Amino acid sequence: MAVAVAEGSVPIANPRRKSRTAGLYPSWFYLPAAIIFAVLFMLPTFASLFFSLTRWTLQKADFIGLENFAQFFREPFLFQGLVNTLIYGVVTSGLKVVLGMLLALLLTSDIFGRGYLRAVVFFPVLVSTVGVGITFTAMMHPTQGLINETLASIGIKGPGWLTDPRFALYSVALVDVWKGVGLATVIYIAGIVSIPLEYYEAAKIDGATPWQRFWTVTLPLVHPATATVIILSFIGGLRSFDMIWAMTKGGPGFTSDVIASVIYKQYQAGFYGLSTAGNVVLFIMVALIIVPLSMLLNRQETDR
Amino acid sequence: MRHAQRYILGGIAIAASIVVFLVPFAFIILTAVKDRRQAATRSFDWPTSWHFWDNLVEVLRTQDYMLVTAFINSIILTVVSVTLLVVFGAMVGFVLQRRPSRWTPIVNFLVLAGLIIPPAVVPTIWVLQSVGMFKTMHGMILIEVAYGLSFTILLFRAFVATIPRELDEAAIIDGAGPLRLFFQVVLPLLKPVVVTVIVVQSVAIFNDFTNPLYYLPGKQNVTVQLTLFNFQGQFNTSLHLLFMNILLITIPPLIVYLFFNRQIVAGMTAGAVKG
Lengths: 304, 275
Known about the structure:
The complex is a heterodimer. Chain A has 2 domains: 2-51, no CATH class; 76-303, MetI-like fold (Orthogonal Bundle), CATH 1.10.3720. Chain A is 70% helix and 2% strand. Chain A has helices spanning 2-13, 31-51, 67-74, 76-108, 114-122, 129-139, 146-153, 168-193, 197-205, 210-221, 223-239, 242-247, 259-268, 272-303; strands spanning 54-56, 61-63. In chain A, a hairpin with a 4-residue loop joins β1 and β2 (61-63). In chain A, α3 crosses α14. The longest helix of chain A has 33 residues, at 76-108. Mean pLDDT of chain A is 86; it is low at 1-18. Chain B is an all-alpha fold. Chain B is built from 12 helices and no strands. The chains are: A mainly alpha, B mainly alpha. Chains A and B meet through α1, α2, α5, α6 and α8 of A and α1, α3, α4, α5 and α6 of B.
């Protein structure tokens, strides 16, 4: 790598000078990707910082300061979206970590039917989110749905999973976990199989029980996988839109609204400034959570 | 693990997997082949009469063959976006890995930003409108490329590192320019990761609902995921058609999964296990 740095830095400092290797790796290779990324991703991101401070009709933007943001914290139906986004992110990523780890332990053990189980756990990851959402909406129907009919047959009166304001958000989060846990599982499987078997053998010779082997060998050594699962599913959970939109559209009322669905609703209603402020709030929220979290997780990694 | 335990645990896990993971898929298939009245009960039972063909034809014919249009649109969107992603992403990953410079940290930062930052929706529409690409397939394709680049570059950069530099130098001594070096020497060697990128991004773009919802509204431009959204409003009582539609759009990812299971898992777990 040191050689590469020396070679690479010469033509940068002095672009006219001919260098045998610099011409091999021309900077213009960045150009097509850079233009698309700059125009369609970075420019809107920077523009959002300005437009979130305006009342905006796409033709005309009136500067109104922080009014849109004030509204986000003042209006209960907008603020609820903020709280719900956090709950949704924590619940989905927490469950994916725990269930993904347990499933991966099961599916790396010498269990009967392992190939089938791995396939069936992973497949929902590839299926359309909206399709899954609609399917579970039908199965969670308060009276006709498969889930409550099954519960009724053993004498339990199931709740209105998606119609009861207390449960709607959590029901959607559970379906999100159902769909996404396969990804967490394969990440954990990759992490577990990369742990050298010698560690387990050494622990066994020292008389460690399976439980102790899990806590002292598997859990610490699978840390990179844990970090990846937490970060990936947290980012996904905070940004989640399609599952919620397919299942409840934020209802009943606005009890299962998240920031992403608020952004869409305000966009549909023509409040472009407020919608963009929602984007900025989401951006800040993701950054405030993910950056410290990934620093924390990576520091623990290097400490070891 | 002892022999008996292996089978008992496996048996329990298989039974649980049937209840948790297979019942929802069985529910989709069964509802898709029922008649209107039986499907409307949302019950999980055997169809009293089979209407696979009727339902299929009716779903396809709804709203002037909207689902057919949607399939064509989704395939165009997926194929073109993924092609551009592979070429542009590989070019960046190649130079990024091969020639560290003062730009490298900036590029790395932007790649991470692209993974983390949620896209600003209305400002993107504003940009698309001002270049005349809002509600067009061209615009939608470029959006998918912009949003997919970060992940693609990460995969390519990691893989380019495994290709020895001596090959580059040999090609240059043989008189190849940078374009020939990249397209005729390096890109063919990247084949495994190219397959991974193609498979993972195709599934992601084919299943994308949110971005076409915002950037590609309108009936001519409908994509497969949006047909579900349209059916959901229109057929509140026609669950048999809605589920036939779900069944149809689940088939392409299923086929991809059957053939490329290994590459998908490889791509999605990339970066999870370092060292």
